[in-house]
Structures are given as structure tokens and as C-alpha cells.
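Tutorial handout. Part one gives the primary structure; part two gives the three-dimensional structure as C-alpha cells.
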Amino acid sequence: MRVEMWTDVACPWCYVGREHFKKGLAAFAHRDRVEVVHRSFELNPQAENGTVPIIDAVAAQYGRTREQQVAREEQAAAMANAVGLEFRIGGRVFGNTFDVHRLSHFAATRGLQGGFLDLAFRVNFAEEASIYDRETLVRLAVEAGLAEAEVREVLDAPDAYADDVRSDQRLAAELGANAVPFFVLDRRYGMSGVQSPETFTRALEEAWTDTAAA
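Part two.
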């Protein structure tokens, strides 16, 4: 079975949703037969990097007051904490995650994509280090096991893995995804938003049964 997962490292609901999926997958009897494919989705492709605090930027983007956006951050933090994830409120900045996605695809060529994304989410939400800062990206990529010289080469070449990112985003659009997290099971079932681990387990079981019967 193949599960395709579209996320953006800037998205707090992706941070939580990925963890819920992992827990749901861990409870699935055939988990060792599941291939997880990480796909790219940019929430803010036109954004400038590291210029505006995330709460102010997102509040303006969606027409909310600052207090309303803080409340949403607190809700996301509570959900993250409930599954053992650290989530700091208030220190992140708004930006464009295209370089993170390019590095994610490079990490995939080395079999390190999942670990790289785990670190990128942690750096953004638990450490509040800027994922738009080149040296931060180099640090987390090396921590994930990638060679520093190769990471810098990718970052120095704006077109490196850019087509892979755009291809993922075109596919998401073709499948009807306009928000993340978004999950597709064997190209039969689509799931969006932060589902419970139990919901993921049931969906995997249903997809497995249907695929076996096909």
C-alpha cells in the first residue's frame, strides 16, 4: 500500500497531523507493507522570507484579529502537546518554504526524507529557529544525515529539485487538494485535515481490505 502525504513545514496542522498519522500507522497490522511518500505543498509561495511575525502575517492573511490568531496557535499547541510534540507560540516568522521542499526532495534521493522533515518541523515549531535561514537549513539537513557540501550545492542552484516540488503541487491540485495536511491512500481514498490516529488506522484497514479484494 502507498500513502502519499502533502504537507508544508510552515503549517502547524501538518505538524500535528503527521504525528497522528504516524501513531495511526503504528497501530496498523500491515504497517511494514506501507510505503509513505512525502509530497510538497507551499502554503505561501509568494511570501518574502523572515520578514513578519507569523501571528501578525497569518492574522492579516485570513482577516483575523491578533487575539483570534493567538487562540488558534494555542489550539494547535494543545493538540501538539497532547501527542508529545513541543510547540512554542509567538516566535516564528512568515515566509516561503520552497527551499525546504527542494531539500526534502534531495533528502529523498538519499533515503533521508522522513527524518529531514521531522527535523524541519521540530526546528520550526519547537526551536522557533528560522527555516528560511540558509544556515539553519544546512544545520538541520546535516543533522538528518546529508552531506553539507551537497546541501550547499542544492541551495546554491535555484532550479535543483524545483520541478519535483512543482510536480507535487500540480498533482495535489489534480486530486482536489487545496489545503494541507492531505493524505491519499492507494489513490483510492483522500483524507484532509488533522484526523485522529484511530481514524487513520481505520482508513488504512479499509484501504487494505479494498485493495486486497480488487
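Part three, for discussion. The chain has nine helices and four strands. The beta strands are 2-7, 35-40, 182-185, 189-192.
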